[in-house]
Batch of 3 targets.
Target 1
Amino acid sequence: MTLPRTKLVGVICVAVGLTLYGTWVGCLSTRTERPVDVPISMAIGHVRTPEFKINLNAPFTINVEVQKTIPFETLNCLLGTTMGRTSTDLPECPDKSSVVKASWVLTSNGQTVAQGSSDDYRSGAWMNDAISRELGHFQSQSGRIYVLDVNVLADGSALTPGKLQK
C-alpha cells in the first residue's frame, strides 16, 4: 500500500522536523553553560576552583550569587548591584556600602587568560530566589582547561545569611 503524495510529503516533513529538533536538543545538552558552581566564603582570603573544561567558544561571566534570604534592598546594597558608580549612589544605600571587593585571575596551563576586579564591574542579575553580582567575564576556547583564582579583599560576611551559592 502506497501513501498518497501529500501524505508522504507530510510524513517526511514531520520526520525531518523531529530529527532536527532532537539533534538541537542533544547538542544543547552537551554544552557547558555553568562550568563552575561552587559555594565560597566571602571572608577575606583566597579561593581556587578545581580545574574545569569548557566545550565551546563563548563568553562567560564570573558571578557571586546570593540567595534572597536578606531583604531585597539590603542585599542589592551589600552586593553593590547598582547602576551608579558606588552603592552609596542609591538613596537606600547611604549606610550600606557594597561588601563585594574581589580580584580574580583565570589561568589555563599556567598562563593568565583573563583577570579583573569587582571594581571594574557593577552589574548584576535578579532571579526569583537569588541576586548575582558580576565580578568579570572572559572568552572561552573550546577544549581548554581553566582554573579560577579569586582573592576576596574585603569582609563579605554580611552576605552569609544569604547562603552564598557561587
Target 2
Amino acid sequence: MSESADTKAAPAKVRVSAVLEGTPSGGTGAGVFAVCITTLILLNVLAVVLATVEPVAARIGPVLHWFEVFSIAVFSIEYLLRVWSCTAQDRYAHPVFGRLRYAVTPMALVDLLAVLPFYAPFLIRVDLRFLRALRLLRLTRLLKLGRYSESLRTVTRVIRAKKGQLSVAVFVVAIMLVVASSGMYYLEHDAQPRTFSSIPAAMWWGVVTLTTVGYGDIYPVTTLGKVVGAMIALLGVGLFALPAGILASGFAEELQSQRAEEKTCPHCGREL
C-alpha cells in the first residue's frame, strides 16, 4: 500500500486494509488476525471432514451446524471489509471500478466461493443434488490459507516464475498421453473390444501407465501391446519427472533469492 493511497483513503479504511492484507503498517493486529483466521480455516476443513463420518455427524451435528453459521458470518464480514477497504490501495482506488477490479482477483473469488454455498439456497431454488455438490466448495476455504502462509506464497511465486516451462512439460505429457492411448487402442481393440472400446477409454490406461501407478484393472494382452506398454511405462518414469525437476529448480532459485534479500540492507541496498 503506497503513501498516495493512504492520503486519499480514510484512516479507518487504511487501517483495516493494512490488517487484512498483513502489511507492516497493520502492526500486531495483522498478526493476530492472520493467526485467528488461519485457525478458523483449519477448523472448517476439520468440520467438513467430520461431517462425512455418520456417527460423529449424528452426535455433534448441531454443533457443526452452528460452527458453520459462525464461520460464514466471519468470512462474510471479512469479504465485505476487503471489498470496502480495497480502495485504500492505488490499483483499486476508484470507488466503483476499483472494487469491481478487486472482486475478480483470484483470492477475492476464493473468498466469495468460501461463503457462496451457504447463501445459494436462500437466493435461488437449488436442486438437492446440486446443493450437495455446492457443499464441496466449502473446501475452497483451505485456499484462503494462501493469504496467511509464507510457505504457500513461496509455492505460488515458484509456479508463477516457472509457468512457461511447466506449460511446455504439461503439453509434452498431454501429447504423450494421446499418442500412447491411440496406439494402445489400435493394438488392443480387436483383442479387448469392451476394455479398449475407444481412444478416450484407453486414456485411463494411458494415465495409469504413464504415472507408473499401475492399478491393473486395464492391461494389454497381445504381445505387441505388452511390448509397447512396457516402453510407455519406462517413458512415463522420466516424463513425469520433468515437472518435479522444474519445480525443484524453481524452489532452489527462490530460496537463493530470499537469502540474498536477507543479506541486503533494505534502506541502503548494501550487503550486510
Target 3
Amino acid sequence: MTTNTTAAASGDFSLGGDLRVNRLGFGAMRIAFGPFDGPPRDPATGVAVLRRAIELGVNYVDTAAFYELGEASANRVIREALYPYEENLVIATKVGPLRGPDGLPSGHAAPDRLRGLVEENLDVLGLDRLDLVYLRIGDLTAPAGESLAERFTALAALREEGLIRHLGVSNVNAAQFAEARSIAPVAAVQNHFHVHHAGDADVLRQCVELGIAYVPYFPLGGGDRPVDRERLEKVAARHGATSTQVALAWLLATAPVMLAIPGTGDPEHLEENVAAAGLTLTGEDVAELTGGGR
C-alpha cells in the first residue's frame, strides 16, 4: 500500500492531557544501529529519515541516551536533524538501563543516578525540559515483585523541579503500574505488545480507562515473541498492503490510547510505516489475525 498518507491519518491523542500527538510516531533506536551490538549506522541517513518523518506528520519521537554505539547516538542524530525543534514535536526518552563494558544494556541505575541520566538527555538533545521520561525497569521480560518506588520517586522530584514535563513507566506489570501511579501521575506506559503478543491486556485496559497512553515496544515483533508473518501476509494481500502495515494498523485499531512507534533507519521503510496510518482493517481481518494467536 503506497499512498500520500501522513501520520495525521492515525488520529491523535492528548499525551498527559496537554501534548497532542499523532498516534503514529517514530522509535529512534534504529537510526543509530540495528541490534544493540551493531554495527552502527551512518548518521547522515538517520538525519534524512528523521527529517522525512517530520515532513510526513510524525510529531512524537521516542528515544533514549542508551541508544548509542560508539559514535552512533540516537540523541545526537535527533538534535542534528531536528534542532531547533518544531513547537509541536514531542520527544520522549527512557532512563534506567546502564551500559556494561561490552556496550550492551546490562545494569540499572540506582535512584541517585537518575538525575545524571536525565541531565545527559537534556544536554545532548539541547532541551531545558524533557516532554516525557519513562522509568524503564527489568530486562526483556516484565519483572515480578520488583518495586520501582524509590526510582520513580526520584524522577517525580525532577518533575517537580521542572526538568521533566510528564512521567511514564516501561516494562511493568499491573502492580508496578499501580505503584507508580500512587507516587506521581503517569502519562504513558511502554510495554512489549503486538498483534501476536497481546498478553498485557490488563494494563492496556487500565490505560484506556484512565486515559493514559499505551506505547508498545517491539510493535512489529522482536525479542522472543515474533509475529506470525504468514497470517499477516494473508490479510495484507486483501488490502494491497504489507505485513508491516497490517501489524501497525491492528495496533492503532486496538485502543484509542495506543501510540505506535515503529523504528527504522531506512527511508523506504519509513514511508511504508507511515502509510499504515491510512489502512483500515475489517472485523474479518481482526478475527483472522488474532484467532488462536494470542
